[in-house]
Amino acid sequence: MSSFPIYLFIFIVFLNRYVFGWYLTILRGKNLDPKITGYEPTITIVVPLFNEGRSIYDTIKSLVELEYPSEKLEVTVVDDCSTDDSYEWASKAAAKFGNVRVLRNQINMGKRKGINAAVRASTAELIVSVDSDVIVFPTALRELVARFTSPEVAAVGGRIHVSNPNHNWLTRLQTIKYYFGQEHLKNLERALDQVMCLSGCLTAYRRSVLIELEPILEDRNILGVPIKYGEDRYLTHQIVKHGYKTRMTMDAFCFTKAATNLEGYFNQQLRWKRSNIADFMIGLGDAYRLHPLLTLQYLSMLLLVLVYPFVIIEHVINGKFFELASWHVVLIGGFSLVYHFSPAVRKLPPWLRVHPIAFMPMAVLMPVAYLLLTPLGLFTLDSSSWETRGHGNVATPRGAPP
């Protein structure tokens, strides 16, 4: 098998995800992230909870202290049958703060059904989804709200920073990976107002749209098998499919703790891989509804997920392992340089930055993830595990990006 078609295909994927997106952001300029003033809707922050322990108390505390009128803000925690003391810590927070309530599922339902129950119980105009291991920056709500510039805008997501970037080599690597995932990979989607995956870490939705889509969200399955993971990706895709705009702003941000060991990291990557595969399988028939550039991106990423494991195997069988490995090293080295010289990175406080050499292990982790996690994800699509990272408390960040 000639390597030329494969590398040409990868080059096309690269152009579409990076170059075209970058070009469109330049064309849009200041219109890339429009905002309004004076809009102050009622908000319910929904926090799905499973086995976070004491850290859920810290998360709730950060939410009730956000810079937003307390009479227009409530926090609803949905405990999905935690097996540790998470419910007790959430209840303690509810007893202390008057605008916090805790719901507890009778059986393990998964994040999406738990969130849907909280949405039904709310009367707020906007629903803000926040993961239970996240600390939200005080101004984040106001920044999210300001991006709802028209009724067509149904969802606005924020940026995620790693709160423990320099803990070890793995958290440094993830810090750079988060940077690329938000600063570059979403440029095309942001420029077209069709961001295809807004993270459950920090995203605001119009409640009316969530109610409209509830029957679809409640019955998510593949060949009759209920799917409980990847709810944020699936929800965003459905919002776009139904003709609404989705946006992401870098001015609203939160902090999450990256996995500190390979077990936690690969559990997270496996969950995301399943989510990607499920999204491709369910949404493939509607890809033509997207902007042509997004359709190209959607189909090319599907092919990359399916084909790349075979590319790796073919190179190993034909004795071309070092050729492929060298290509990965050059690619990751180039990304490391982009991170190092990025103006967005240089604006960050020193504690949020890492040395660019930290990204080099990705030259190994990337092909391993494609080779092992793709088939494993395919054969475990019926998994209902939350696959949390098993971390402890989320430390309150010592500072924030400008």
Outline the structure in words.
The protein is α/β, with parallel strands linked by helices. The chain has 14 helices and ten strands. It is globular.
Stretches with pLDDT under 50, minimum 5 residues: 389-399
Total of DSSP H or I helical runs spanning 4+ residues: 14
How much of the residues is beta strand, in percent? Answer: 5-15%
**N-to-C span:** 50 Å
Mean pLDDT: 86
Order of helices and strands: HEHEHEHEEHEHHEHEEHEHHHHH
**Major β-sheet annotation:** 8 strands, mixed
Spatial strand sequence of the major β-sheet: 3-2-1-4-7-6-10-5
Using the CA coordinates, give the radius of gyration.
Answer: 21 Å
- Give the total of beta strands: 10
Helix content range: 40-55%
Q: Using the alpha-carbon principal axes, give the shape.
A: globular
Secondary structure class reads alpha/beta
Summarize the structure.
The protein has 402 residues and is of the alpha/beta class. The protein has 14 helices and ten strands.
Throw out a few tags for this protein.
402 residues, alpha/beta, 8-stranded mixed β-sheet, two-stranded antiparallel ribbon, 14 helices, 10 strands, 14% strand, globular
Task: Map the helices and strands.
Elements: H1 4-28, E1 43-49, H2 55-64, E2 73-79, H3 86-96, E3 100-104, H4 111-121, E4 126-130, E5 134-136, H5 140-145, E6 153-162, H6 169-183, H7 187-191, E7 202-206, H8 207-218, E8 221-222, E9 225-226, H9 231-241, E10 245-256, H10 262-283, H11 292-317, H12 321-341, H13 343-346, H14 362-379
Parallel strand pairs: 1-2, 1-4, 2-3, 6-10
Antiparallel strand pairs: 4-7, 5-10, 6-7, 8-9
Helix pairs in contact: 1-11, 2-3, 4-8, 8-9, 9-10, 10-14, 11-14, 12-14
